[in-house]
Request: fold
Amino acid sequence: MISLKMNDTTKLNIFDILIILAIVFQDAGNFGILPLNFFQLVMILILCLFGIKMIIDKKLVIPYRVLVLIAYVVFITLINIHDFESIKSVGYYGIHMVAIALYLMYTDNRAKLCKVLYYSASILTIYGILQEFGYILGISAIYDPTVWGFYRFIPIPLFQGTIRIWSLYSEPAHLAGILCIGILIGLLGIEDKSHEFDFTNKIITFLMFVVIMAGVSATAYVGLVVTLITWLLISDIGRKYKAYAVAGFVGLFGAVFIIFRDIFYSIVVYRIAGLISEYNIVGNGTTFAIISNFRVALLKMKELGIFGTGMDSNRIWYYDYVDRIYGADAIYMNADDAASVFTRVFSEFGIIGFILLAALIVYMIIKGVKNKDKFLMIMVALFIIEGMRDGTYVNVVLSIPFAYFIGLIAL
Reply:
């Protein structure tokens, strides 16, 4: 099943396997023994291997549009630089994005990229199911990844001796993007007549849905809605079957919330409703992380200008601004990643950066819907779902669609 040939269009090569490892273990940490996080070492390895190949192939072209974007990011960061960590962040993000860009450039195979994403989601799903059974049976070596050196895992009881499923990620919300896209690819595989998605499996796809529901994450549930909307936009099946699918989705969601009322109150009442209605401060941590970082970004823009304060600067300004907004006893949450890539871009690159990002996403949606481009819409959905609750620039799941977008506009 694994091939070392870069031009093989059906089998996974060593670079595909490395990307799968990077996705699956991107929240693993350094296992307490490595100099960098495991997935960071994988990305550096990818860059080195592709760099050698690029030199051999004499293939190095950087379109001017990409140069303009890079120049803006570097310039805004350098004129606002505050510490060495910011410089390191710019450097490593450059390494990370070049590795992703080279992978996409040399792979240039949409079906294989879908396979890579689906297999990554499948591995995380299978472990998530094992994790739940391990907790029920009291086997910590199965349900607790910290036993194997993962940097954080806190089992949160759900009901009747079960826990929320986090799989190998740091929290269910971070797991949402890859699993929702796994479900989207699986749905496309069910209806596909061209055998482009023959690698999907109905049972595994259903288990992805089970793991998302058992994660009890508002982000994941919103992600499922984004997944459904995306599938409706690009699916080839008739309107009648789409209506049946929507009815089934709504009915299944409703049944879960009726049977498990604690989930309903946790997600709908305390999180989603709290996010909408309580702008000042809320009791739920996820909601407060989103709102507090947004308010910091908004105040920064008013006081420091519309161009932002540069890459990795949200963590520098966050604490002082939160104290000013909420008082000296305020809690701090997600200073490093601003709880969302959209908020982080707004905070670090100002309204200009946010408008550019929003315009990019809107352009990709219009292009994808107009051309019935399934793969492009998969990338759009992946970026939106993952970016809603994770602003980590070196997130592999977030970087793949972003690099793909940049590649499209650079052509």
In short: Confidence is low (pLDDT under 50) at residues 1-8.
